[in-house]
Amino acid sequence: MSNSSLTQGFLVKQAGMLSLIQDAGRFGAFNIGLTNGGPIDLLAFQWANRLCHNTVNATAIEISLGGLTLTAQVDTSLAVTGANMPLTINGEIKALWRSYHVKAGDVIALGFATQGVRCYLAVAGGFNITPSFGSTATVCREGVGGLHGGKLLAGDMLACASNNINSNKKQNLLLVEKLIPTYTDEIILHTVPSYQQQHFSSQQQRLFFSNEYTVSKSFDRMGYRLEGQAIACDIKGILSEGICHGAVQIPADGQPIVLLNDRQTIGGYPKIGAVSSIDTAKLGQLNQGGKVRFEPISMEQAHNLFHLNLSRFNRTELVVCD
Amino acid sequence: MSHNIHIAGENALIIYFSKPGDGHVSANLSAKVQQAEQLIRKAMEQELAQDIIDLVPSYASLMVMFNMMTTDHHLIKNKLRTLLQQMHNSKEQVATHQANLVELPVYYSHESGPDLSVIAQRAQLTVEQVIELHQAQEYRVYAIGFAPGFAYLGEVDERIAAPRLSTPRMKVPKGAVAIADRQTAVYPSVSPGGWNIIGLCPIDMFDAKANPTMPVAVGDRVKFKAISKDEYIALGGALEVSYE
Q1: What CA–CA distance (Å, rounded) separates B33 from B11?
Q2: CB pair distance less than 8 Å for A235 and B21
Q3: Which of B55, B89, B123 lies at the terminal end of a domain, its last residue?
Q4: Structural domains in chain A plus CATH codes
Q5: Chain A residue with minimal CA distance to B4?
Q6: How far apart (Å, rounded) are the C-alpha atoms in residues A49 and A56?
Q7: Domain count of chain B?
Q8: Per-residue pLDDT tens digits for B61-119
Q9: B243 lies in a domain?
């Protein structure tokens, strides 16, 4: 940091397994090969921001698996949402899905997730990170975004606004318990048949949409490799083409891969469809051994699903809790 | 019609300019993709500014990502049809982005290109002939992807086409000039990779701080030019590279 005397915020004491600066993602840079990045569980990310009175896409931290410890250098408020990671402030256990005031010197620690994979930590006003190519989203594979193009490291300084400076101390909020998303080990992936769908026989498509798949040990922000009934395609490869979020790629071994935020921008494996964003958010909370089933839906249904979920999010009121 | 609009995902359509399953690469198809991309980008500056988020051009397709908050696939499909119809009807070629001719220097040698001799043996050519053939062609930038700044160039002379390594390298050095089938490329940064390496290029293929960030764009033409080890080093090329 060049102007360290002016920058204040949170100091990373322990970085954890994989903690990443994320905003909604990077769009408009596909032509130079840059992928989207952004939060894997968009819903939890947006809740964290709303709990801090932020715009829904403000820069926050995505914590995978856990182990992040921060020291506050400013008075502000923060909220953690997502996977069930034990949160403590100065050693005291705190609930997720609500915001807290913190003071300079407070220690905020996340243990390891007992259910789900990823948490989101947002602060009032969002973290002040200089965007790269229009976004603060970190994509490690590309070395782009965040503070230095990679995951957070001990000693990193994450700048954010202070209550003392802008005197905008706001009320703490919480999401009532019955509305908190639950993370289960078995989910349905609603999938729009698309791309090379016609190169999978109707029998292969039936197999794909009727069998259960298990999350293999290879799952990350790029994609989730699944194991189960192998699916055969009439063609081996295709001319490399654009890969959208949620695309289900079927490589030569027939085991599906669901491609997520850090996916390669183009690729040459046949694809049978694409999973709705509502469900990729749930998939991204599954660990090795998690079970999924694919269910075909039309574009109309996908559109409705998206908008009904958005409407539910926008109409859900948070409760003032202090 | 010479194109087909398919569904890609809930917020994406993909325009195919060749028949499904046709793996043929041609400059003609690529030019169509480029033309369509430019037309759509123009519309994105005006009436589609809110509606289209990003475009992904490739060999014979163009993926169009749209904003589900402002529009839907019916409207986008309709707009794309109209634009493509315009393109189809206009007799004169829509002025395409001035295709630049970019010359990239390459230090070809056993030291910098560990797979040169394998390619030469397979083709029953000398290493010098392989180098000659790689430089003889003018290539087209067909697509950019895989990694930031990775430009897929085609097509190399059939004689020096080479299948991907059966075991990809864990670490391909930055600047590695490589061949896979009839494609060639310069690795913009250190990465794993299964292409056959024939030399090193000292020019940055991706610099996040530069403007433009890349020396080439889709549709540009590229020629390679052999340089000596001294010239390579003088141009800032590194030699303490490892091929694992």
Answers
A1: 20
A2: yes
A3: B89
A4: 9-180 (no CATH), 186-315 (2.40.100.10)
A5: A195
A6: 5
A7: 2
A8: 999 999 999 999 999 999 999 999 988 887 655 555 567 999 999 999 999 999 999 99
A9: no
Which CATH number is B55's domain given?
3.30.1360.40
CATH code assigned at B142 = 2.40.100.10
ipTM of the complex: 0.93
Task: Give A30's contacts (C-beta < 8 A, 6+ positions apart).
Answer: A242, A265, B54, B55, B56, B145
User: What residues in B contact A276, CB-CB < 8 Å?
Assistant: 10
Of A159, A278, A290, A164, the residue nearest A224 (C-alpha): A290
Specify the pLDDT at position A1: 39
pTM score, whole prediction: 0.91
Domain-located, residue B37? yes
Q: What is the pLDDT of residue A3?
A: 43
Query: How many Å separate Cα A12 from the centre of its chain?
Result: 20
Domain span at B72: 4-89
Would the CB atoms of B8 and A28 count as touching at under 8 Å?
no
Residue in A239, A259, A294 to test binding to B, most B beta-carbons within 10 Å: A239
Please, which pLDDT band fits residue A127 given cuts at 50, 70 and 90? very high
> Going by C-beta distance under 8 Å and a sequence separation of 6 or more, which residues neighbour residue A21?
A59, A60, A61, A127, A129, A136, A137, A138, A145, A146, A147, A152, A158
A159-168 average pLDDT score: 70
B42 in a structural domain: yes
Same domain, B14 and B45: yes
Least CB–CB distance from A31: residue in B14, B146, B218 = B218
Instruction: Name the A residues in 20-39 with CB < 8 Å from any B CB.
Output: 27-34
In this structure, the answer to whether residues B74 and B107 fall within a common structural domain is: no
Task: Give the residue among A167, A21, A5 at the shortest CA–CA distance from A73.
Answer: A5
Is there a contact between B36 and B83 (Cβ–Cβ < 8 Å)? yes
- A274 CB neighbours in chain B (<8 A) are 8-10, 12
Kindly indicate the confidence band of residue A178, based on its pLDDT and cuts at 50, 70 and 90. very high
Q: Do B6 and A27 touch (CB under 8 A)?
A: no
Q: Are residue B126 and residue B67 in the same domain, yes or no?
A: no
Q: Average model confidence (pLDDT) for chain A?
A: 94
What confidence score (pLDDT) does residue A165 get? 52
Query: Measured between beta carbons, which residues in chain B are less than 8 angstroms from residue A302?
Result: 10
Q: CB contacts < 8 Å between A and B, how many? A: 139
Instruction: Render pLDDT for B179-200 as a digit per residue (tens, 0 to 9).
Output: 998 999 999 988 888 899 999 9
Given B7, B23, B189, which is nearest A192 (Cβ)? B7
Give the C-alpha separation, A88 to B74, whole Å. 49
Choose the final residue of a domain: B52, B67, B89.
Answer: B89
